[in-house]
Design a protein that fits this description.
Helix content is about 40%, strand content about 10%. It has a three-stranded antiparallel sheet. Strand 1 and strand 2 form a beta hairpin.
Length: about 325
């Protein structure tokens, strides 16, 4: 195996110990440090100064001027002073006083109620003038002649001095559908035949939703209105309570003199107070609930029909009592 050329180099002068005991990598010759040829001498070489351009030179000058200015203004010392805690003798004495001062005791609340102290309350004197007199007058007028809030129609007529050619009624309609309407619509001549000939069964006030055609539901009617439209021949009272005779247009608003007279004539002949669908078949373009409202709001307060089931207030408002 061939030997490395480095092994043939002389070891003399590679490492020389000085008089102080430090090692050096170079030999001294004629007072100058020279390289031994194996390791370059870098310890004695000084770095060459770097050239400074004009921008860096101006920057250094500005920094020197700023430092001089800050030193002149004593900014550094002021920052140090601000960081130190400031505690004066006055503050110290106040804080010591607060710590040494005993906490104040809470003052208990004292009840000042006259009842608790055993003092009798003064009696309240009722007012006898002004608004109180007006209230008493209104209450006495509302009470009516007998001292009650509501009164019968006879008492109301005596109280107001009203004169009327009144029709006596027990609150029941005894007729059937108008004969002309029966013939026009093919309705049986009495309630028994109309019911039995058109399905019969047990009567119920409950609405049978299964009997409502889809065509009527599609019109947006309520279940009661849609169901009543199916009862023309089997239960005319239900039909005419919410519907006029087929082919007619329902009237709205105030009643005419002819309608008013027709209402009274029908009430005198057949009675009045229930079965408003059958009653309405005698008043063209009016339905049962319109006749019922007209009876309660106009006929009874005017005492045109005497119905013991109603009472009147002093203002003439009819209220159903039965």
């Amino acid at each position: 195996m061939p030997r490395s050329p480095l092994l043939h180099l002389p070891l003399q002068g590679v490492c020389k110990r000085t008089s102080t005991g430090t090692a050096t990598d170079a030999r001294t010759k004629s007072g100058e440090t020279v390289s031994n040829g194996l390791f370059p001498d870098v310890t004695s070489a000084a770095p060459a100064p770097r050239a400074v351009n004009q921008y860096e030179q101006e920057r250094l000058e500005r920094m020197q001027r700023n430092a001089a200015k800050l030193q002149q203004l004593a900014v550094q010392q002021r920052l140090i002073d601000l960081q130190e805690p400031v505690t004066s003798a006055t503050d110290t004495s106040k804080s010591q006083q607060r710590r040494s001062k005993a906490p104040a005791q809470r003052r208990q609340a004292v009840r000042t109620s006259a009842r608790v102290r055993g003092i009798a309350a003064e009696p309240i004197q009722p007012e006898t003038t002004g608004a109180a007199d007006a209230t008493d007058t209104i209450q006495s007028e509302e009470a009516g002649p007998s001292g009650r809030d509501m009164m019968s129609q006879q008492e109301y007529m005596q109280y107001t001095g009203m004169q009327a050619d009144s029709i006596a009624s027990d609150g029941h309609f005894t007729g059937w559908v108008n004969a002309a309407v029966c013939q026009q619509c093919g309705i049986a001549n009495n309630a028994s035949d109309a019911w039995s000939q058109n399905g019969g069964g047990k009567f119920s006030f409950k609405i049978d939703k299964s009997a409502i055609p889809a065509s009527l539901k599609a019109q947006g009617w309520s279940n009661a209105r849609a169901f009543s439209a199916t009862q023309l021949k089997q239960n005319p009272n239900t039909f005419f309570y919410r519907n006029v005779v087929p082919g007619e247009v329902q009237a709205f608003g105030d009643w005419s003199e002819d309608e008013h007279k027709l209402f009274l004539d029908t009430a005198k002949k057949y009675g009045v107070g229930d079965k408003w669908g059958l009653f309405a078949s005698y008043i063209p373009q009016r339905v049962g609930y319109q006749c019922s409202a007209y009876y309660r709001d106009v006929i009874v307060p005017a005492c045109l029909v005497l119905d013991a089931r109603f009472k009147l207030s002093a203002q003439g408002k009819a209220v159903f009592q039965n």
